[in-house]
Design a protein that fits this description.
The complex is a heterotrimer.
Chain A lengths: L8 H6 L3 H4 L9 H10 L5 H27 L14 H25 L9 H21 L26 H34 L3 H10 L7 H34 L11 H27 L8 H31 L3 H11 L4 H13 L7 H4 L2 H28 L14 H22 L7 H7 L32
Chain B lengths: L4 H16 L13 H5 L16 E6 L8 E7 L2 E7 L12 H4 L1 H5 L9 E3 L5 E3 L2 H17 L7 E5 L5 H11 L6 E3 L5 H11 L5 E2 L6 E5 L10 H12 L7 E6 L4 H4 L3 E4 L5 H9 L4 H8 L3 H13 L3 E5 L6 H14 L7 E2 L13 H12 L5 E5 L3 H4 L6 H6 L3 E4 L13 E2 L10 E6 L2 E5 L12 H11 L1 H4 L7 H8 L3 H11 L1 E3 L28 E7 L12 H4 L14 E3 L1 H7 L5 E7 L2 E9 L7 E6 L37 E11 L19 E3 H8 L25 H6 L9 H4 L15 E6 L8 H10 L22 H4 L8 E8 L6 E8 L18 E3 L5 E3 L9 H4 L6 E3 L34 E3 L4 H13 L12 H5 L5 E5 L6 H6 L4 E2 L3 H4 L5 E4 L1 E3 L10
Parallel strand pairs in B: 6-7, 6-14, 9-10, 9-12, 10-11, 14-15, 15-16, 20-24, 21-23, 26-37, 27-36
Antiparallel strand pairs in B: 1-2, 2-3, 4-5, 4-16, 8-13, 17-18, 18-19, 20-25, 21-24, 22-23, 22-25, 27-34, 28-29, 30-31, 32-33, 35-36
Chain C lengths: L2 E6 L2 H14 L4 E4 L5 H7 L6 H26 L12 H28 L19 E6 L2 H13 L2 E7 L1
Antiparallel strand pairs in C: 1-3, 1-4, 2-3
Helix pairs in contact in C: 1-2, 1-5, 3-4
Classes of the chains: A mainly alpha, B alpha/beta, C alpha+beta.
Amino acid sequence: MATVTRPDEEVLRLGPNIPEANIQLPGVEKYEQVTREIQRTLYPTKLWFAGLSVAIICMLIGLGAWMWQVYMGLGVAGYSPPVMWGVYIVTFVFWVGIGHAGTLISAILYLFRAGFRTTIYRAAEAMTVFAIMTAGLFPILHLGRPWKFFWLIPYPNWRLIWPQFKSPLVWDVFAILTYLTVSSTFLYIGLLPDFAALRDAEPRPLRKHIYGVLSLGWRNSELEWRHFARAYLFLAAFSTPLVLSVHSTVSFDFAMADTPGWHATLFAPYFVAGAIFSGIGMVFTIIIPIRRWFHLKHYVTLNHLDAAAKLCLFTSLVVGTAYLTEFFIGWIGGNSMEQSYWWNRVFGQWWWAAWVMLTCNCVLPLTLFVQRLRRNTTWLFTLSIFINLGMWFERFVIFDPSLSHEFEPWQWTRYAPTYVDWAILLGSFGWFTMWFMLFIKNFPVVAISEVKEIVPPPLRTPHPVEGIEVTGMRLAFEPETPGERD
Amino acid sequence: MSENSTPSGVRRREFLKVLGAGGVATAAIGCSSDRVEKLIPYLNHPDETVPMVSNYYASTCRECSAGCGVLLETRDGRTFKLEGNPDHPLNRGALCARGQAAVQGLYNPDRYRSPMVRNRSGQLVAATWDQALKLMEQKLGEVQKGGRAGSTLFLNRHESGSFPAFLDEWLAANGMPAHLSVDPLADNAVIAANRQSYGVSWPWLAFSAARLIVSIGADFLDTWGANVPQQLEFADARARLADAPRFVYVGPRRSLTGCNADQWIACRPGSELAIANALLGKGSVNDAATASDVPVATLQALKTELTGARPALVLSGVAGSDAMELALAVNELNRQLGAVGTTVQPDRAITSFDGIATDADVIAAVEAMRAGQVPLLMIRGVNPVFTTPKAAAVVDALKKVPFKVSFSSYPDETSELCDLILPDHHAIESWGDAQPMANVIAVQQPGMAPVYDTRQTADVLITLAKANAGIAAKFAAPNYMRWLIDRYPGGTSAFTLALEKGVGTGAVAASTAPRRATAIPKTAAPIAQTAGDLFLVVYPSCSLGDGSGANKPWLQEFPDPVTKICWQSWVEINQQTAVKLGVDTGDILRVETAQGAVEAPAYVFMGIQKDTVAMAFGLGHTAYGRYAAGVGVNPGDVLPVGFDAKSGSFAWTATRAKVTKTGAYTPIVTTEGSARQHGRGIAQALTVRELADLAAGRVTEHAEAMPGMPNTEYLPGLRSPMAADAQGVVSSNIKHKEQGMYSPDHWSGMAKRRWAMTVDLARCTGCQACVTACYAENNIPTVAAPYQESHTAFLHGVAGGNILKGREMNWIRLERYWEGGEDGGDFEARFVPMLCQHCGNAPCEPVCPVYATYHSPDGLNVQVYNRCVGTRYCSNNCPYKVRYFNWFGYGEPARPQYAWPERLSWQLNPDVTVRGKGVMEKCSFCVQRIREAEHRAKAEGRELRPDEFTTSCAQACPSRAITFGDAADNDWTVAKLALDKRGYHVFQEQLNTFPAVVYLKKVNHPAPAAPAGV
Amino acid sequence: MQGIVGVFRELDATVDAVHALKKLRAGNIDIYTPAPRHELEGILTHRPSIVRLYTLIGGLAGATFGYWIPIWISDYWPLVVGGKPVPSWVPYTIISFELMVLIGSLATVAGLFITARVPRITMTVGYDERFSNANFGVWVECPPEKQAGVTETMKRHGATEVRGER
């Protein structure tokens, strides 16, 4: 690449030029390299098999717990009325939230032309699909009669008995199913050219055949690319309002109720911000090991992580503001029931949960103001774990303390999950991890064709050619990245 | 007698239950004894037993000695509900919780299935009646040959009526002494005093005639005397609002009765006599004050108020060492205050308590046994091993008796020790009669054929007599029923007539046997002289009585009206004392006396005098079936054996105890969340003055028309704006075709009605009879029996786990809120029956994703069990928290949580399904009764008559606090009551729910001197 | 169908070749590229993709259906819940929105498949595995008499390989 030049001195003094740098992959120079290095990640390893089996075991534990619960009745879980929704709904909202970052990165950042999305969006989007698959289980397994869940789905029947469309739970059914369909479609469409690439690059005959089928005969012709770009744009344009609406709808489950602590107009934006925050946390949890074990550090560079960390910090601040607003409204609203509820949540019976939430979601992320920590993968990973924990507790703190401290003092109560709740929670992580494990060894975890878009194209002459807008001619200064090549 | 109808009926019944249990409860219920098919009681005039149509047989309740009149609702050969008999002079159609729970005694899974004989290896084994009777005859023969018949003993559970006479006749014929008629709950001291003062054992207490009621430890709303008639009278008195009597309660513990008092004077146990004397003028107020630790001013004020208020009513019911003296003093006080004849009416005496043997007699009998003088002991319906203190060592005494016969129907502590069990019928299976009042005979008739292979004791005795050639002639009647009819004044025709109403006139045969006069064996030492640092007050439990209720799950799960604790024993301790001992609620305390020690969790309670701890009697059985055994502890284990010197009645509160903290902890099994309202206006009250202002229309906080207050434009009908709009009442913006059945001119006419309820808190005493009535009517499962606790909160075989998790299913619950008293001073208790409010803007409805709950055109908040998928969102959104979820398969016989082990399931109301696992349920305003009445009206081609029917809770309520009906039709009582100025809706201001339940504010009567405002 | 396919390693070479081939008017040209490049966008045609039409129609259909279903049901079987009007359009907006997104997206995908003629069972003539990896390809569909000229043009512009296919 004759086009790579060292930056001049004043750029050095300016420090890293992230906005430009994060669309640069100095470690990647050729189209062939991209295909080769991504295809290389598709060979299963012992470590992978170990992880997969652990995931499956966790899933089976959860499955067993659920079967026990179906047989005995929901009483084996920790429900203590009036706390009628417990760990399951908390976990449901947790997973839905996780999903949102994927769509944000793949769709919204696509519309905003944010360069750093390119190499991480595939992993994030897969995460979305699997998170929704996980979340979708919980509304069913928290039912008193799960075998009747299909009554919530509007299916034609001769008695013309339909769902009650005024119920937020029915809105959920629509939102979640739509979200699952659209995001998995989006994922697959994005995968098409990569399948084609793998179909042509893959030496193993069976896989070659499978990719051939999956690629739907894609052949990289200009005609295809033209429609592809257009369709991809519209899918992104649809996913953007969808991702906002889905979690708003989920938040309506609570905002539409009269329960103190739920009944707030703030909930839609508050939940969306929280969702994206938790999702980005999960992206870190996922992408940092992957870039290490799959030797993709020169694809997912520190600059990408840095930029994502900024987004994480921003959403954390939004969430923190939402918390404060909640407290403030609870106080200024002058409703004694609201006030007593808030007091009980933060300083009373539930203080510990509330403070776990505040610490993990509002205090720890503040460290991301420091660039050295933003670029420190170990810290990012640790922090992401805390964020996941904190966001799970956020949902817990919103739901259960509210129910345990409602209008009717005579029915104030405690709530403690039982082994069944925990087992099913564990199972959900097993289920999610299982799918993700299967994904990363069978599908390109970094988008081949999209990376090729930002790799400088092979040119016959080093100078700009007529009609060619040559991207990425200037390489911004990058402290660690080159050193990270392996 | 329509035999053909019954089998189909029975099958239908099973079918219904199967339906209810979501198609899971099936075969296990099939063990219906074929005898049921054989006999439908052929008593009502003329017999119109139709399958699936209820017959109501008038009978008499035998759960306590009072003997209220009941109607046995019987269908297809099974009695499944007890309702008060409106024609009965005592209970006038009301019935207490214990009375209603009688059916659970009838179908109790632990009843003896057949006679039992103790075999050589010492086990009780089932036997046939022939074997059992032969053995009995043989033993009787031996005793008589041995010439020891004169020293045999017969302990019988006290019941008024002919049976005592019959029994004594039989005993006399066998050369045996008269029986002992035992009632551990009877206040023998008061009875003796009344006999001495008025010549009757229980004068009629006309509370409504009084201007001031002073009760010195007399819990006339719990177990003292005939509580249902007393409660009716008391509620009527309170319903007079402005000129209702003020009620002052004097006692160491604030019982349910005390909680209904306007003022509570906490005195030391044992000081009651001093107080009474002070009031009487015989003793000085100062001495009384020092003795009782009550401020002089308080007593002085009471004394002056007492002299001022005429007529007053003073009661005493203290089971202490000077009980009779106190009772006499109180009677004297009443005489002085001119109460006799006005508030105390000897001429309307209740005769149910005539002929009760004193506790001293019982103990004397026990001593006789211990001395080995008793060759043969016969026990029917009493359980002395449990009901007498351990210190009396009844068990050892029984061991000295060579042959013990029990007629008990249940394997209780006593019958377990007997050698021969001849199980008696349950009262619902038996013939009999009672003499509740002079010249009133209440008949008792069976509602159905016997559930198990039991026989009525009277019939057994007749059979035995016939077997004995010597006396057979004396007992010519083929059975006891015939014996009764022969002796009934007016003969068969009069008897048959009496059967219809349940009551007749005349007097039953009285026992002529000489009453044995026994000396009082052991006078109780004055309580102050006993060892210990705190006074120990043992009082009979409201629900379990003398412990005989402990084998009925309804009564076990029935929260104590005051402490709201169930399935558990507890020690009530004053908070100041608790602080001193470093005790908090749930810490296990050790209560120790010279006689022994018991351990139970502490319940820190404002309503107990600070030098006193209290425990309820009735729990702590070691036998008596799966619901009773091992639940709680028995405070009788620590009581000394001592008697009131004069009357020989047992001194329950006669000792002090050493109370120590063990360090162990157990969560209190309570249905209570927070005992304070936090100013949320759930239970509202006003003082007499405020009431006057309200009546005069003077401006109070209720004056402005707050939406939903029963004085806004949406009444009559209590409809919310939107619901009324949907129902076409107000100007509708909804297209007619969208209204469907909600259109007032729809052919069904449903939208014309609005079912509603008023609850008068001035009447409500918090007795919770409504709760049990609801359990009985609506097939509500009990969830916290020991055997139901596997898989719940890791409590295996420990009662109460599901209650700890708040999973009780009481569709109507009594909330008991404390007002004031934070400073340790006097406080107020407010009771609110909380049930589904059937809101016009029901928050639960729009959140249900499957239309499992919606608003019916006649204003009901409908719950469709079969449609419910169990999202439980409705409950989350219910501000009143009156929706209950089936966490387990309570209706599925295969489950460890099955709530109706055979044959409790026979009690299930065939009109109501048993809800399956995983569905939500709640109060339906007894929709089955509504529809039944509507269909009856339609069948008879007429409109519903106002107040034609009512809900189960309203029907049972012994204070007549609940009124149900059509609020949209002004001819119904409820429509008028809803407009009462005291009316309010709970949470209406905050939530705009437009409930269909109107609460009428409680009215408080502060002391004349006290400032307004409670 | 027969023609010539040329394999190019460099982007600018491909662009030049295509321009030249267009001047040659040998026949329909198609370009294969591992990744979409702006340089190649406008060369062959300027007609915008019609996928947007499918999106529009799908979205509108979904929105309408999402309103119609709940309203029709409420009307068909009127049940009052929470004292609210039987058909209340506000909550139904959410159903409508979700269905708009769902059907709109699926229509978009359908549009992509139809216009881009995927899925297809077999690779068309002229495709080469290298085109998905690192190389650009130009396919000219032309009769045998013109093939010589096309081959020559491609070679001139630096095609690494030129071969005829049929």
